[in-house]
């Protein structure tokens, strides 16, 4: 059903015969097109016509499509379970002392606005890739190879969902700003062992809950 909203402003098509009375048919069409463009510009600039920002603009112009990641394949999940077990075994052999929790269990993407969720997940995934990449280069390369390829693929797709950073675009604030700051500070201050532990404990929450929430968009409530 289409709703028609009456406007107190004159309609461009009504004005065409008044402004372009002496034009032949072809010239009249061109004249009316110019009148339409002029009226649209004037009404928009004065606020008479609402300017709607498409959701695709908020989520990046490169094409945000995360639906494919609502669930990973059984083979991918098996590789991640194997990697998590190896990481946990490695962590048991080392003492670690953490002054903070970069990825606390109380954090829930549903507390954020829809456009903020890809931003938070992108930062979370970037830290995960950096930490696991360091581990892979040192001890667990074979085991982490497939999971890292999957995470990099997800990260490349996710970046298209992050709003472009510009003066006109939305800026992190409130809870999102706190989360991003926590991740930045943890990367600077926490030990390697602490970051590995946080990323390992958070791995399946990232893959199952957080990733699915971003993929569901408005439906994640």
List the helices and strands and how they pair.
Layout: H1 12-19, H2 25-45, H3 55-58, H4 74-92, H5 116-138, H6 141-158, H7 174-189, H8 192-216
Which secondary-structure class do the elements indicate? mainly alpha
Indicate the radius of gyration in whole angstroms.
26 Å
Mean pLDDT across every amino acid position = 76
Q: What is the overall number of helices?
A: 8
Largest sheet: none
The helical percent reads: 55-70%
Low-confidence runs of at least 5 consecutive residues: 1-10, 41-62
Number of strands: 0
Task: Using brief descriptors, characterize the structure shown.
221 residues; 0% strand; 8 helices; globular; disordered N terminus; mainly alpha; 61% helix
Describe the structure.
The structure is a single chain. This protein has helices spanning 12-19, 25-45, 55-58, 74-92, 116-138, 141-158, 174-189, 192-216. 61% of the residues lie in helices and 0% in strands. The protein is built from eight helices and no strands. It has 221 residues and is an all-alpha fold. The longest helix is centred in the last third of the chain and has 25 residues, at 192-216.
Care to give the gist of this entry?
Helices cover 61% and strands 0% of the residues. The protein has helices spanning 12-19, 25-45, 55-58, 74-92, 116-138, 141-158, 174-189, 192-216.
